[in-house]
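ENTRY TYPE: protein
CONTENTS: sequence, structure tokens:
***
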Amino acid sequence: MRFKVRDIMLVSSLYDFYLFEEDGRLYDIIRQEYQVFNLSHAPEITHVSTGEEAIELASESHFDLIITTLHVEDMHVTKLAEMIRQNGIDTPIVILAYDNQERKDLTTNYDISVFERIFIWQGDYRILIGIIKYIEDKINVVNDTVLAGVQVIILVEDNVKFYSSYLPLIYAEIFKQSQRLIAEGINLTHKFLRMRARPKILLCSTYEEAWENFEKYREYILGIITDINFRRGGEKDNEAGIRFAKEVLAVQGDIPILLQSSNGEYEKSAKEIGASFVLKGSPRLLHEVSEFMVNNFGFGDFIFRSPDGKQVGIANNLIALAEMLKIVPEESIKFHAERNHFSNWLKARTEFWLAHRLRPKKLTDFASGEELRQDLINSINLFLEIRQKGIITDFAKDTFDPENSFARIGGGSLGGKARGLGFVNMLITNYDIANRFDDIRIYVPSAVVLGTDVFDQFLEENKLTNLALSKVDDVDLIKIFLEAKYFPEEVRKQLKEFLEIVRDPLAVRSSSLLEDSQFQPFAGVYQTYMIPNSAGDSKQRMEELLQSIKCVYASTFFKAAKNYMKATQYRLEEEKMAVVIQKLVGTSRNERFYPDFAGVAKSYNFYPVAPQKSQDGIAMAALGLGKTVVDGGNSVRFCPKYPKHLLQFFSAKETVKNSQQDF
């Protein structure tokens, strides 16, 4: 979405503005509505009451939208619009009338082609939000469909009063759907993308306009809501909506269509062509339209049904969908697959990659229903895996993969070490490094990171800050931190869920704000703790983890850390600690865990041996968790560019002497 309405000029008489303002609450109400639906910043509204003021202000300042009533104090509204255009201002202009009578007078006696569209104010402030989003959608639809695959809803209605009611309703339903999807976002960026990828609404008033939009955005159509009686070929056609629906379904038979009319006799015609129907005079009209969108546009849960319409399962997210696919009857899967229900539901949830992967497949492409079932499950699992690769997600038990996830718990910074791990994780994914070498998997072991906000909260609630900054012995400091009773309850809950998923040994690692800085790396300053995470009692495992986290927090204020900090430009009270809880890599044998190997790589080698050059770097590796290398023990040294050029000794005895003896 490129274009956003951020500044609006409202042109109206003082009395009209008073009605809009509702005693000064209009802007606050719109802002509140934006906040409720997690929309971007509410637009600023500038009011003027005369055409002269409007033209002068529009010439001096930029506005994204001009909304005018028919009651402009010093000139007719059509003259105002013409003069704005004569001044070279191409801002969209929308009329907001008060009733059909004054609208009819305008459309009958004046040329209204200069206006974007006419709406009728019916006392519901949400019409302003509908107008704003209508303009944004009209301008952004080409870009958003082509670049992102965003879906489109076509609304065909020439009755101004009706579409003035429908637009706020449809947008409200779309925003509710976006709210549901935001809750499932894997991180903040993903949540915002889901919000911005909501379906666009294209409002049409004639058959030709509707058909043009259908042909232009055919592959992106989520659904159609259409009147039956509107203009076709320049004249009123009592069955234009039915003709339009027939033509659409002949081209693409799985598009959900809702026909609406004041004449209930058309319900039979709608059913005959496979469309739904609502009566415009129904006291439940808006509710029925909302219900249709939830059930047919994929805005609700995915309801598995048998061919006779009986409900056999329900899924409210992708993971639940994959689980239900394992157990629902084969006939139900076939029923939904041949109607493209799976891809339609996914598109409504902005999962465009997966939807486009499934959409081209036909029932006849599979030898059996079981093969179809497995293909759907595999496709969903593949998508879930790809979606989490290379990014730091918000931890959720349902989506965390113990083999392929890097997630965060709590707010604040991730710290230097976690940030570095996240960066490497991103590089591995973006440059397809994971499987570059045969029989070798390159990856960042799964981990969760406690943000620095958890550290701040722990210190504040336990009143530890002043004590920690004072001269306290390291042993006493650890004891004080371990005895601290408060630990954020929500974090406890998420750590418990993490331990339910991961049963491997864990490294509880420091990740301070300053750690791994370019010029002050803080290497070895803070502590890392290993826990077996193997006790049968889940409470014991949880207690071991919490104790390790508290010890890492305490190490922020150890004597060595304070002394190191004095040699830098930083102050200890500016330091904050995040914690990385990461799986150890190795193999369990006979109740013991044996780590693989670890090492250090440097980009510059001060002692190269030909044909090596200093710029080729040097690496040291040893069995274990890296302590041997970091402590200067015997390890294998090699140049990454020439890995087989190992350092040779003059005798077997010297070779053994300079080789790793233990770990």
Summary: The chain has a mean pLDDT of 87.
